[in-house]
Amino acid sequence: MTPTDWPAPAKLNLFLHVVGRRPDGYHRLQTVFQFLDYGDTVRVTPRTDGAIRIHHRLEGLDPEQDLVARAAHRLQTATGATQGADLTVTKRLPAGGGLGGGSSDAATTLVALNRLWETGLDEEALARLGLELGADVPVFVRGQAAWAEEVGEALTPVELPEPWFLVVVPPVAVSTAAIFADPELNRAMPPITMDDYLAGRGGNALEAVVAAREPEVAAALEWLGAFAPARMTGSGACLFAAFDQQPAAEAVAARLPTRWSGFVARGCNRSPLLDGEWIDYWGVAKR
Q: What pTM does this model have?
């Protein structure tokens, strides 16, 4: 069958607060998600024999833990689908970067196979399946910039400015579990509202913890902050700053120290995934 390419865009956490802990041990969060017009690509070729074949190997990841494979098997189980698929991820998003690469790949797999297999699940049902794979998967399934609470799955769509972002990628992979377990993490930040965020309140509660553990993150944050307000996304290690115009972002990217990589991308309130079948267009400026 004919292969099709599907986008798995990056996300940014424009702010991230930890406001408490639930009885099940998970942290209660407040954050705003926005997508980027840059990310991974998932190539999907349906099969008639029911087999799920993975044709990529993600560095440092046990194949049994590959979220793309898990998403495909979960959709089969939930719907009784008898079709299978060959799946290949072209990675651009770094592991442990806070850009949501693995979660986005899983969401794209669910959305693509739901359509190609004609299993008929609606957005709500797909988001519920996604939550079984990871807390960030539902926002990628729904594909709308969102105010998020609880573990990140309680989503309210929002309309935000769509600036150009310079994303700096230090050569560091950060363990989300380790950061949330760090005793220095502030777990009792006062909740804020969307109006508070739009008025300029809000930061990343994990940023100080990551910067203390990872000198490269601290150095990159200081460097980027000399050009524009800079922040870490998610649990790191990637950092971002917003610019009104693409040339301004690219001018700073051109000065990026060689020990770090980075890319310039546009913020998106609507995920490219919502446009369905996709031709690989991730041609934005990258170093």
A: 0.93
